[in-house]
Amino acid sequence: MEKNPKKSLFKMLSQAHTDALQELGNIGAGHSATALTNFLNREISMGLPHGKLIKVEEIVNEILEGLPARNIALVQIETSERDFQIFLVFDEDSVKSIIYLMFRGDTRNVDSLSDLTELHQSLIKEIGNILLLQYLSAVNTFLKTDLFPQSAPILYLGDAESVVNEKLMLPAEHDDPIFLVEVDIFSQASDRPVRSRIFIKPSEKAVKNLLEIMFGEDWDKV
Fold it and tell me: What is the arithmetic mean of pLDDT over 27-41?
């Protein structure tokens, strides 16, 4: 019998995804704290990651949940597997918190994303890239894949729905699973945490490996 990772995939992953996503989140957060500390030259800590499984059609609602504004900064990197996608979202307040942290409290003239200078955008992109690379490494470690970035990170700014629907090449199957890891970033230099959301659309290879980790080699018979 040929194994088909798309057969009832969301239902299968939903049965036992919590521990897997929590472990993935913990690995990525640990790596990210060290990398950001080195980049920012100040102590950075990560909050407890929260992992969940969502569908493609739920991405926009997950991004906007609890936010006062719809504008976001989305950082994406292309990887060596075409059907694998990973991107990160900062809401508008978190972008301001990053600017506050990077410029030691100076956020003058930055009232919205449209006020970001090229320097601001470059810093947002680099911090997003650092986080994404650490989570890509976590995916490789946990799911036994060999993914690597194919290009420089891309930054999109604007309305969440427009960015997701017009800029991202998401799969047509709206019930395809997406791994979402939410984690806050803290620094003693600022009382304004940065809220980050990492979205991972796994490749078929990664899905197969995850199913084998959770259910064993005979996962297709579960």
Answer: 88
Question: For the segment 130-169, what is each residue's pLDDT rounded down to a tens digit?
Answer: 999 999 998 888 777 888 898 899 999 999 999 998 888 7
Q: At what angle do helices 204-215 and 118-143 cross, to 10 degrees?
A: 50
Give the H or E element holding residue 148.
none
Can you say whether the dihedral through the CA atoms of 143, 147, 148, 150 is positive or negative? negative
Closest CA to 51 of 75, 26, 76: 26
Q: Which domains does the chain have, with CATH numbers?
A: 11-213 (3.40.1550.10)
Question: In this predicted model, what pLDDT tens digit does every residue of 166-216 receive, in sequence order?
Answer: 888 776 665 677 888 999 999 887 778 899 999 988 877 777 777 777 677
Q: What torsion, rounded to 10 degrees, do the Cα atoms 193, 199, 205, 206 define?
A: 30
The DSSP element (H or E) to which 31 belongs, if any, is helix 9-40
pLDDT beyond 70 at 57? yes
What CA–CA distance (Å, rounded) separates 214 from 159?
37
The predicted model scores a pTM of 0.85
C-alpha distances (whole Å) from 172 to each of 36, 56, 169 are 35, 9, 9
Residue 180 in 3-state DSSP? strand
SS (H, E, C) 63-116: HHCCCCCCEEEEEEECECCCCCEEEEEEEHHHHHHHHHHHCCCCCCCCCCHHHC
Rg of the chain over Cα atoms, rounded to whole angstroms, equals: 17
* Phi, psi values for residue 186, rounded to 5°: -125, 150
